[in-house]
């Protein structure tokens, strides 16, 4: 069969030449390519077709290289004599191309190596899946532990959670985490913890508390004795744990 449409040494053809052979409307070339090549979900760019720019009549326009298989498919879609003739031509070209460039046969060693490679890939995927599953379980455990109320020792539990948050940072210590939590609390509760610390110390002094007790009063002391602040602060620490640790 004479060369109806040019085929390069890689077994690919120009879609523009195929289009012209099929005697399709020149004005519809770009739209046809967009619909049948670029938006074709069954054939992939870089595998079945390659787009590139060419100069035509002094203007830059687009052309495509197609595999013989894809070219056959496009010809079959025309359902006319030109499409049938082009398809038969590509079938013949494909046969001759395979005779000139036969597919390499894998040796037994290559087959074993391919099986081993596939097995290694599957094992890697399983390992990644197990790691993701373990990470999800860890996060679920963290969430569960975070939202379980422990009323036996509020301050100790809160300090433990703050320490856990601090450990999740490489450049943030326990004090910085606590200060961040205090700032959020003051904003939400519309209060000034430093002022409340002074007031609490004054009340303790008036009631005859020891100097040591008064000196040990801090922001946590103020929060602990106020049910509303305590509830808000606990929620803040839980939120920070989920945000930074989980």
Main attributes?
246 residues, mainly alpha, 2 domains, three-stranded antiparallel beta sheet, 65% helix
Describe the structure in your own words.
By secondary structure, this protein is mostly helical. It folds into two domains: 89 residues, no CATH class; 110 residues, no CATH class. 65% of the residues lie in helices and 8% in strands. The protein has eleven helices and three strands, in the order βααββααααααααα. It has a three-stranded antiparallel beta sheet with strand order 1-3-2. A hairpin with a 2-residue loop joins strand 2 and strand 3. Helix 6 packs across helix 7, helix 6 packs parallel to helix 11 and helix 7 crosses helix 11. The longest helix has 40 residues. The chain starts with 11 loop residues before the first strand and ends with a helix. The model has no long low-confidence stretch (mean pLDDT 82).
Total count of domains: 2
The average pLDDT score comes to 82
Using only C-alpha atoms, the radius of gyration works out to 37 Å
**Helix proportion of residues, in percent?**
55-70%
In order across it, which strands form the biggest sheet? 1-3-2
Q: Residue ranges: pLDDT <50 for 5 or more in a row?
A: none
> Order of helices and strands, N to C?
EHHEEHHHHHHHHH
Content-based structural category: mainly alpha
Number of strands: 3
Describe the global form: elongated
User: So how many helices?
Assistant: 11
Largest sheet: 3 strands, antiparallel
What portion of the residues fall into strands of 2 or more residues?
5-15%
Give the distance, in angstroms, between the N- and C-terminal Cα atoms.
68 Å
């Amino acid at each position: 069969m004479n060369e109806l449409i040019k085929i390069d040494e890689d077994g690919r053809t120009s879609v523009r030449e195929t289009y012209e052979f099929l005697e399709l409307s020149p004005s519809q070339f770009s739209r046809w390519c967009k619909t049948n090549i670029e938006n074709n979900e069954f054939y992939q760019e870089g595998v079945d077709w390659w787009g590139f720019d060419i100069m035509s009549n002094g203007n830059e326009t687009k052309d495509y290289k197609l595999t013989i298989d894809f070219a056959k498919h496009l010809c079959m879609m025309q359902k006319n004599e030109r499409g049938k003739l082009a398809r038969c031509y590509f079938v013949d070209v494909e046969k001759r191309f395979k005779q000139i460039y036969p597919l390499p046969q894998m040796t037994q060693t290559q087959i074993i190596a391919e099986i081993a490679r596939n097995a290694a890939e599957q094992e890697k995927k399983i390992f990644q899946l197990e790691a993701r599953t373990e990470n999800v379980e860890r996060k679920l455990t963290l969430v569960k532990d975070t939202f379980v109320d422990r009323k036996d020792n509020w301050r100790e539990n809160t300090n433990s959670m703050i320490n856990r948050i601090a450990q999740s940072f490489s450049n943030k210590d326990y004090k910085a985490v606590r200060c961040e939590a205090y700032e959020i609390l003051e904003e939400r509760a519309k209060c000034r913890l430093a002022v409340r610390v002074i007031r609490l110390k004054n009340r303790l002094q008036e009631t005859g508390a020891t100097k040591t007790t008064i000196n040990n009063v801090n922001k946590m002391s103020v929060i602990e004795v106020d049910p509303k602040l305590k509830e808000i602060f606990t929620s803040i620490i839980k939120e920070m744990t989920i945000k930074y640790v989980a």
